[in-house]
Specification:
heterodimer; A: 291 residues; alpha/beta; B: 265 residues; mainly alpha
Chain lengths: 291, 265
């Protein structure tokens, strides 16, 4: 399978302000690609360049072998794009707006009604009467209406309640099963873990590294905080820091030997939790496994 | 190569419908009111003492007929407010999507920029033509209603040239919106007809070579109701050519900017 999206040394500056410093990546056909990073890291800038809304300062990007730009009708016909904040004709009803999108995309309104029903979206309401989350739903429907070959989704689940998030993930899996390539930006790592095949961590305008979710999941571990600060030793346990009062550890291995060790260590306090995906990602990067 | 998109055109018309309705109703009703007041105004003029009438001569004098009355009291108001409406529609055709942030959802549809440009321009142009036609029809009915039918030919001539002035403001404001940075306030567009209207009224104050030259720098000159509604009217070709040329140049420059315009919302 070929690459649907290819970006090389993509850079974007808004005057002197940095939007994107140096992004190089490729997205394979049929995969769900997560673009993960904190706010202001350059995710939306990358997505807007990819959607042809803004131009890169330097570097190159292509989708389906074509360069996105203001007149990229061919790319736009194959892409479903959902902006981070969904704004549509505010004084019109949802049905009218989505009907307009359906007509422009050359598809029937059956799919619109089906998606709206699954997402529990009221088609009879005016856009300006919708909450942020409901406007997000309009964005999801507008992006998925025409069953595009490529979905570009900017923070798609922000503002959605957990039930709708689950429905959205189901829809995403269905699209993927149909062969759709998905490029999804998020700062919600749990969502990325559930939805994506590969993930790129973007920070301060650059891509730190790209890896598979399976690889990251393999790196799952426990995080421990123990007090008082003591030296503990067991296979798979690694001290990561601490102070006079407490010590921090990472642990990879079975739970029983760890619990047995902690029970005999004379501790006054113990906190054990799963490492977040962010900690796994950053740990992965700091160990020099990136790029 | 698709230049016009009827789906987009219909949606855009619906979007602006309420504004067009309000402006059209307000201006048409104002014209009807001005004309309906004519029988009363005639009586008022008759009661004006001669010395005060002489004073009024400095400000255009007392109208001789309903046509002159309409030209000075109604048509000039229609021109000013209609031009403001035209500038708002032209500017808003591009600017509104950026201000209301709908641009990010619209410009990723499989519609070329040239189609957006042409469709939006046509929509704004049609809206001012609707206003112009309804205001003219209402005025004509009002003339008949007060029992003062006017000559149809000069009235139609005025309506056509006045609509052309409106179109000039649509095109200039549209070009401005395409050339300026995104998210500008619509006030920028209103300033154009306002300034040109002031220039027009100033240029009429005296028969002076400089002022006469200034008349060529405002489109209101080629739709001067007092001149047009006269029997021996001649088209003011110079200001008409200047402003049609400016509009064409503006639209061309606007198109060049719009086709590569970055959508930053």
């Amino acid at each position: 399978m070929g690459d649907v999206i290819i970006a090389r040394n993509l850079k974007k500056y808004y005057g002197t302000a940095r939007g994107l410093e140096d992004a190089t990546l490729s997205v394979r056909e049929g995969e769900v690609y997560g673009f993960v990073g904190p706010n202001g890291s350059g995710k939306t800038t990358f997505i807007r360049i990819l959607a042809g809304l803004i131009r890169a300062t330097s570097g190159s990007v292509s989708a389906f072998g074509l360069t996105p730009g203001p007149d990229s009708e061919k790319i736009n016909a194959a892409v479903g794009y959902m902006p981070g904040e969904s704004f549509y004709y505010p004084e019109r009803k949802v049905r009218e707006v989505l009907g307009f999108f359906a007509r422009e995309r050359g598809v029937s309104e059956v799919r619109m009604r089906e998606l709206a029903e699954r997402l529990d979206l009221d088609l009879g309401k005016r856009i300006d009467a919708l909450s942020f989350g409901n406007r997000k739903k309009v964005g999801i429907v507008a992006a998925m209406l025409h069953q595009p070959k490529l979905l570009i989704l900017d923070e798609p689940t922000t503002g959605l309640d957990p039930l709708v998030q689950r429905t959205f993930l189901d829809l995403l899996r269905e699209e993927q099963a149909r062969g759709t390539t998905v490029f999804l930006s998020s700062h919600n790592l749990t969502e990325v873990e559930k939805a994506c095949d590969r993930v790129a961590l973007v920070k301060e305008g650059g891509i730190l590294f790209t890896t598979t979710i399976a690889d990251l999941v393999k790196r799952k571990h426990k995080r421990l905080v123990v007090a008082p600060a003591v030296e503990l030793s067991i296979a798979g346990l690694e001290r990561t820091g601490g102070n006079e009062r407490e010590s921090y550890y990472e642990y990879r291995g079975e739970t029983a030997p760890l619990l047995s060790l902690l029970a005999d260590a004379g501790l006054t306090d113990v906190v054990i939790r799963d490492a977040t995906l962010e900690e796994i990602v950053i740990g992965h990067y700091e160990r020099g496994n990136g790029r | 190569m698709r230049i016009f998109d009827s789906t987009l055109f219909t949606m855009e018309l619906k979007r602006g419908f309420r504004g067009v309705l309000i402006w059209t109703f307000a201006l048409s009703a104002s014209m009807v009111l001005v004309i309906a007041l004519y029988p009363m105004v005639i009586d008022m003029y008759a009661a004006i003492p001669p010395e005060f009438a002489d004073l009024m001569e400095a400000f255009g004098g007392i109208p001789d007929s309903i046509v002159e009355y309409y030209a000075t009291e109604g048509a000039m108001m229609l021109q000013l407010f209609g031009s403001i409406f035209a500038a708002l529609q032209g500017f808003g055709a591009i600017n509104r999507d950026e201000r209301e942030k709908t641009a990010e959802s619209l410009y990723v549809l499989p519609i070329a920029r040239r189609t957006f440009f042409a469709t939006k321009l046509l929509r704004a142009s049609l809206e001012v033509l609707i206003l112009s036609a309804v205001a003219a029809a209402s005025s004509y009915v009002a003339f008949l209603a007060v029992g003062e039918p006017i000559d149809m030919a000069p009235f139609l001539r005025f309506t056509a040239l006045n609509a052309l002035v409106f179109l000039v403001f649509v095109w200039l404001a549209f070009a401005m919106a395409a050339l300026l940075k995104p998210n500008q306030k619509p006030f920028v567009a209103i300033a154009v007809p306002f300034v040109l209207y002031v220039l027009y009224t100033v240029s009429l104050m005296a028969d002076d070579a400089v002022l006469e030259f200034l008349r060529n720098l405002t489109p209101f000159t080629f739709a001067d109701p007092l001149e047009i509604l006269k029997a021996d009217f001649e088209v003011a070709w110079i200001p008409m050519t200047v402003f049609l040329g400016l509009s064409a140049a503006g639209l061309l420059a606007g198109w060049r900017a719009f086709r590569v315009r970055e959508i930053i919302v």
